[in-house]
Amino acid sequence: MSVPLALLGLLEREPSHGYDLKRDYDTFFGRGKPLPFGQVYSTLGRLSRDGKVTAGQSEPGDGPDRKRYAITPLGTQEVEAWLSEPVAAEPYLQTVLFTKVVLALMLGRDAAGYLDLQRATHLRRMREFTQIKRTGSLTDALLADHGMFHLEADLRWIDVTQARLGALAAMVREA
Hints:
Keywords: DNA-binding. Residues 7-80 form the Transcription regulator PadR N-terminal domain. This protein has eight helices and three strands; from the N terminus they run αβααββααααα. The chain is mainly alpha-helical. The protein has a three-stranded antiparallel beta sheet with strand order 1-3-2. Strand 2 (53-59) and strand 3 (66-71) form a beta hairpin. Helix 1 (3-13) crosses helix 3 (37-49), helix 2 (18-28) packs across helix 3 (37-49) and helix 6 packs antiparallel against helix 7. The longest helix is centred in the C-terminal third of the chain and has 26 residues, at 138-163. The chain is elongated, with a radius of gyration of 23 Å.
């Protein structure tokens, strides 16, 4: 997730205070990893320095004085360019799962046991996502679906790798 671009997008919607940006970011994008206030303000400082946002005059509030930030035309151009680019297709051909299996085989360790442990970990996470889908909002359900689909693909890969483990072990020994 690109925090600066997400904040720019929120600012394109409407000028906002840092507190409001954090709240909106956490509501839509911060599931399981809320954005720290310090990161909000340091990011806004960099965006301001780079001419992508402007900070209004300090305004009195319920606490310390607050500034309302607004996106500039340069910031709007950056959001437009980012939204028009497709996200890189994942996964890549180098994965931690594959690396661990090959290294386990190279080192004479239990690759099948590792795959079983990984399968159990994925299934446990899928149960967590299922609970989120049952009790969460539409945003939660969509994010849980995304996570579950990735886990399902990993589980299929684990099954295929488990079935081919003997051949992979032979290849690794020959190398």
